């Protein structure tokens, strides 16, 4: 019994020890828990401080972004101010140059008065030697009548004194000459001197000059003109020298070095660029400011085609060119260009003279004002007159433009107005919206009656929306315009005229690069394709990303227009698995399908550069996809 009691006491003691041990451990755990709780509180405090620092950092970052945006806006304003100042300086320089040219012109006029006086006397002496007496008086009366509009009270009386055999003729001549005071350097006299230069004949018989050529050249020399000359030969050069010597401002292209030397001595401006490059560099894509166009015997077909649809109705043309000889079958010009060259009923010594250009040479829009007057485009409509047909007589082709958008309410109205306010007579405008949640729907509602189709529904992305739009398009010419870009004035007309002028699948122009809402472009980009010449769209260069595509040798997507036939020949859709490069893939596919393209000098689109566009930034997010597309084409056995 005692043994059991001792055993129980020992067990109780052991249990008590275990209880004490557990109590000790519990105390340690409580201490550890308290310490842990303290650590937790410290971590909470640290986390709170971290969150505060994150908030401060985020706020600072937002402020930096805001200041960066302000700096960009300020830079844009400074650029505009610098541009304005530069334009003012250029304007002053031009005035100085104009004054200097006037001084030079006055000095030249003094010399011309002396030369013209001598030349006129030589003409009269030649007539006295070569004509009969009866014809002399008739011819002389004609010259006097043409010069009578330039009478001045103190001018010298002209009295030719030929040795005539009959006293009656001598008396009639003396009475006629004494009754009229004639300006020796009248327009008719200068025109006669010009004609003598054209014929290489100082003994020009005035009986061979009919009234109309004399009238034609009199109108040219009556005031200083701006003259465009292409490919002059020696005879054309003599004409240009005479006109330049009389005060005309002459721009000469494609001139031989030998002729250039003699032409430069009389102030002719030699342009060593091709005509298209010069038009782009000087922003003179419209040539209606030229009063006269002189064409030598063999102008290049590229320059000849670039003159079409760019001249004023009042531009005079002097040409030696044989139009039939300018018609090679492989140049890809529509035959209507040659058929429309009206036969001139006014000629002189092998020159064809036109008081007004043939129909296909006139600018059908008759726009003379430079584009800078439309900087507020598309908020002010340009005042243009739209002819009912193309200059060739064909109807304006239907152009289908597709715009896809999602939450671009900040820009979309400018895009829409730039298309609708083109006033193009055969437009099909299709807009696809992926259920935008901003103010886009309100803007679309204001223009809903002017869309051919306006689809508002979810889509799988930009490519899916583009395919929806093009599936509805019925136009002869197709294009798409992003909802943050805009067309410049008259773009659709210029594209239609180009397709009417050239046998081509594609037309590309230039693109004005603008920073966000800044109206003034900071750059105008053109591809490296030749101007005014139909060429194959080069596959190998398109696939050369490093040396060509990424170097800007090609075009921006919005400036490209193509035919429905090429679209269908190339598959009739854009790839929906591509996020960035669906346009590049389409161009390569078109080139593989033998697409032909022509590059025109006119800028067609304003491309907006801003932070929210997909391709914005220095990290080039589209490059991996672009490279993958390139590699897929390279792997195809072509």
Describe it.
The chain has 19 helices and 17 strands. The protein has a domain at 396-634: Spore Coat Polysaccharide Biosynthesis Protein SpsA, Chain A (Alpha-Beta Complex), CATH 3.90.550. Strands 8, 9, 10, 11, 12, 13, 14, 15, 16 and 17 form a ten-stranded mixed sheet that branches. A seven-stranded mixed sheet has the order 3-2-1-4-5-7-6, with helices on one face. Mean pLDDT is 78; it is low at 112-125, 127-137, 146-185 and 368-374. With 638 residues, the protein is α/β, with parallel strands linked by helices. It is 46% helix and 13% strand. The radius of gyration is 39 Å and the shape is elongated.
Using the alpha-carbon principal axes, give the shape: elongated
Rounded mean pLDDT score: 78
Q: What is the first-to-last residue Cα distance?
A: 109 Å
Assign the CATH architecture of one domain: Alpha-Beta Complex
Main sheet attributes: strand count, strand direction, barrel closure: 10 strands, mixed
Number of strands: 17
Radius of gyration: 39 Å
Say what the CATH topology of one domain is: Spore Coat Polysaccharide Biosynthesis Protein SpsA, Chain A
Estimated share of beta-strand residues: 5-15%
Keywords:
single chain; 638 residues; alpha/beta; Spore Coat Polysaccharide Biosynthesis Protein SpsA, Chain A; ten-stranded mixed beta sheet; seven-stranded mixed beta sheet; 19 helices; 17 strands; 46% helix; 13% strand
